[in-house]
Design a protein that fits this description.
The protein is mainly alpha-helical. The chain has 9 helices and 2 strands. It starts with 6 loop residues before the first strand and ends with a helix. The relative contact order is 0.15.
């Protein structure tokens, strides 16, 4: 089976571009200057402070996983549920003709470690009940790890606006200390307001949307892993290919409909 390489998710990248465009247009609409939004002191307080708070809040391993998850959020493997169902139907045909050993070449050919593990269990002749138990445990652990990545971004979204307020207070302190110096007053006020913009903007336009995206991708991946689990059990039971297709297709429809009802 030909390996499928991840490719960029154009919609997600366009979404980031739209966020930046909205901010720029909002600043320029009333004659403002883009340079006014560039305040190193405000950036240090908000972004540096948020990063420091995250380092204190979470283990480094979890922060690294979150960073990797954000990078992968802009890539996706073009594999639909129906394509995966069709793949397992093909696997079932091979198993019916030549036994589970016929799936061994697929293990090295897949880029999906969960699918590879499922096929290994089938080829090794592990009992169907044990296959379900092992894969379900692995799926839950992965789902929890995906949720932890989303929690990191949500936590950062909580810190950023508060640190924006802190930056505003620091800017106002500078203003009060330099009331006799107009130039210092202007820069202090700029830091105060831009820090608030950085905090509220980064939380609501970047961090929370990214958190929601990671959570949605995690749910979709969890359903996909459940589908692989059902397919592996069906292969181990040597079900007829048409029965495998019908079972997996019904599973996908039921699982996705329940997810939509839960989201509503």
């Amino acid at each position: 089976m030909k390996k499928i390489k991840p490719r960029r998710d154009i919609a997600a990248i366009v979404g980031v571009g739209l966020i930046a465009t909205v901010v720029v247009l909002a600043q320029l609409a009333e004659g403002g200057r883009l340079r006014a939004l560039l305040q190193p002191t405000a950036a240090l307080v908000v972004f540096g402070g948020s990063a420091a708070a995250l380092v204190l809040s979470f283990p480094m391993a979890q922060l690294r996983r979150a960073a990797v998850a954000v990078r992968k959020a802009f890539h996706h493997v073009p594999r639909s549920d129906q394509a995966l169902v069709a793949r397992f139907e093909q696997y079932a045909v091979r198993v019916r003709r030549r036994g589970t050993a016929a799936l061994e070449p697929e293990i090295a050919g897949t880029t999906d470690p969960f699918l590879g593990r499922a096929l290994e269990l089938v080829v090794d002749g592990v009992d169907a009940h044990e296959i379900r138990r092992a894969l379900t445990t692995f799926n839950r652990a992965t789902e929890d790890a995906d949720e932890e990545c989303a929690i990191v971004l949500e936590t950062a979204a909580g810190y950023a606006p508060t640190l924006g307020i802190l930056g505003a207070v620091l800017g106002l302190i500078r203003v009060m200390e330099n009331l006799a110096t107009p130039a210092a007053v202007g820069s202090g006020i700029a830091v105060a307001f831009v820090a608030t913009v950085y905090g509220v903007g980064s939380a609501n336009l970047v961090l929370l949307p990214l958190s929601s995206r990671l959570r949605a991708l995690g749910r979709h991946a969890a359903v996909e892993r459940e589908l692989i689990t059902e397919g592996a059990v069906a292969l181990r039971q040597a079900l007829h290919p048409r029965v495998v297709e019908a079972h997996l297709d019904g599973f996908v429809r039921d699982r996705r409909s329940r997810d939509k009802e839960g989201a509503a």
